[in-house]
Amino acid sequence: MANVAATLKVLNTTVGRDKVYRATQYFARFFAWYLISRGRKVEAVRWNALKGHLAIARKLLCLGKPLEHLQAALRAAQTTGDLKEQLTTIARQLGYFGYLTYDAVAWANTVRFISLKPETSQKVQKIANRFWLAGILFSITHAVFKAGRLTKEARELRGLDEKNVGEQNARKSQLRALCTTRAATRHQFVIDIFDVWLPASNLGLVNINDGVLGIFGLISSVLALQTQWLAVNVTK
Questions:
Q1: What would the pLDDT profile of 183-196 be if each residue is shown by its tens digit?
Q2: How far apart are CA 137 and CA 183, in angstroms?
Q3: What is the maximum alpha-carbon separation in the chain?
Q4: How far apart are CA 132 and CA 235, in angstroms?
Q5: 70 Cβ partners below 8 Å, 6+ apart?
Q6: Nearby residues of 150 by Cβ (< 8 Å), 6 or more positions away
Q7: How much is the pTM?
Q8: What are phi and psi of 31, to 5 degrees?
């Protein structure tokens, strides 16, 4: 019962549902490729259809997300801290803002809410993928800078020589917090490493088949779902 309740809590969030849909979408992409590679094209039709419909559904779920990323960029601009981390955070959020904005236009054209010429539609999708790629690359850069700073701070804390129990306990608490933050940073870094190939492939920068891209998308979706599971179910 506890696992069922925890699962329902995750699925009760928009992010949780999106990650489940995304994992299913990319599994369908992989499985359709697998069936086609085995010459079973008729069986692959249903999986390609599932992939396409889930992609459209997820775009609908993300219609309000551009404003969230714009707000996050504005908040980051008002914070103080490491300048490199601040700039890469702003750039990352603006990248995702641009990506989801153009992706919403592409969705509106797909469902025929608006009508774009084929060349305009292709241009919109290309710009969306450029913003997506930029957002992920800035996210990876941010993770590298942040991980370096956290490692340095942890090393400095371990080098301190506290003389009373209170200071030792405070140091241990700070080290635990740093380790937790560093683990979360590494987790997001791994997600980004898998995801970066998706827009890069869409833009023709790399040549990777749908099977590999499907596996990459599935792995990153499961990892992101794990993050959401912990955020919803772990008491801090």
A1: 999 999 999 999 99
A2: 19
A3: 73
A4: 32
A5: 93, 94, 97
A6: 178, 181, 182, 185
A7: 0.91
A8: -70, -35
